[in-house]
Amino acid sequence: MKEDTAFHARSRAHSLLLSAAGTPIQTIVKAYQVHRVTVAAWITTWAHHGAQSLQDPPRSGRPAKRTPDEQALAQQYIQAEPRSLKGVVERLAHKTEKRLSLSTRKRLAKQARLRWKRVRKSFKSLRDPIAFAKGQRALAA
């Protein structure tokens, strides 16, 4: 919740109200656990820009490396082969010439609502059917 933009705006607004009521900046600093310069900057920007200064400015962030089409293709490959994320990376690298990191693979699998569960190993294909049937009859008797 503390990373929410509404939380930051609410904190700034409350600190401005405290400042307007005559509360010293040092008290506001202790209450919000921020630097004195930060509180002073909130007050200054409020004086210059008004209510706009309460909200965080929009951040651009890093552009996505994959296009929406590549993202959809990756999701499609993950749905087709949920147990082999390495195979998904190879297919995607062959198709788009872009490699995915381990964390990106996990993030894509999580977005596809997949969960990792241990796969039980079975020796069913290796057992002798005649000996197995004989053992079943012995247990039934």
What distinguishing features does this structure have?
7 helices, 141 residues, mainly alpha, 60% helix, 0% strand
| SSE string | HHHHHHH
State Rg. 29 Å
* Range of helix content: 55-70%
Strand content of the residues, in percent?
under 5%
Termini distance? Answer: 64 Å
| Tally of separate helices | 7
**Based on DSSP secondary structure assignment, what is the total number of beta strands?**
0
Model regions low in confidence, pLDDT < 50 over at least 5 residues: none
- Overall form: elongated
Which secondary-structure class do the elements indicate? mainly alpha
Oligomer: single chain
Sheet with the most strands, sense and barrel status: none
Describe the structure.
The chain is an all-alpha fold. Among the domains are: 5-54; 68-111, no CATH class. Helix content is 60%, strand content 0%. The chain has helices spanning 5-20, 25-32, 36-49, 68-80, 85-96, 102-111, 129-140.
Tell me the layout of helices and strands.
Layout: H1 5-20, H2 25-32, H3 36-49, H4 68-80, H5 85-96, H6 102-111, H7 129-140
Protein name: Helix-turn-helix domain-containing protein
Region (Disordered): 50-72
Organism: Tectimicrobiota bacterium
